[in-house]
Amino acid sequence: MLLATAWQLSCGSQSRSSSSGGVGGRSATGGGGNDGLSRGAGGGGPGAAGGAPAGGGGGTGLSGGQSGHDGTGGTLGGGPKYYGSPLYTRVQRLTNDQWQRAVTDILRFDSPVAPLKAPANPPPPGTTDFTNNEKLLLVDAEAAVDFEAGAEAAAARATGSAEALARLYAGTDAAGFVRALGRRAFRRPLTALEEQHYQSIFAWGETLYGPGVANGAGLVIRAMLASPNFLYRSELGAEGEPLSGYEVAAKLSFWLLGTTPSDDLLDMAAAGELDTVAGVEAAARAMLERPEAAAVMRDFHGQLYHLDRYAGIDPTRAPDGLRAELADASSRFFDAIFTRGESVRSIFISTRFFVGPALAPLYGLDPPPAGIEERTFDATRDPSRVGYFTQAPFLLLYGASDGESDPLTRGFVLSYDVLCVPLPMHEDYRNAVPPLMPGQTNRARFEQVTTSCGTTCHAVFLNPLGYAFEGFDGLGRARDRDNGVAVDTKGSYPFATGTRTFADARALMTLIADSPDAQGCYAKGLAGYALQRDMVEGDRSLVSDLATVARDKSLKELIVALARNPAFRLRAVGGP
Amino acid sequence: MSRRRGQNFVRPNRRAFLRGVAGATVALPFLESLPERSAWAASAPKPVFGFFLCAVGGVVRSQFLPAATGPLTPAGLAAEAKATSALAAHADKLLLVSGIKWPPGSVMSDSHVDGLCAALTGKVPLVASGSAQAPRGAGPSADAFIASKAHPDRGPIALYAGNLKNGFAAERLSYSGPGTLVPVIDNPHTLYQQLVGLDRPTADELLLRSRKSVHDLVREELKTLMQSSRLGAADRQRLQLHFDSIRDVETTMTRVCSSEGLDTAKLAGLATFKYDAHRTDEMVGLHMSLVAMAFACNYRRAASLQWGDPYDRTIYDVPSNPSPQWIFTHISHRVQSDSAVGSDASNPTATQAHVEIDAARMKTLAAGLDHFKARGLADQCFVMWTNHYAEGPSHAFADIPHIIWGNGGGFLKQGLYVDAAGATNNRLLNTLISAALQDTGTVIDNFGDGTGGLLDAIRA
Question: What are φ and ψ of residue A370, in 5° steps?
Answer without folding.
Answer: -75, -35
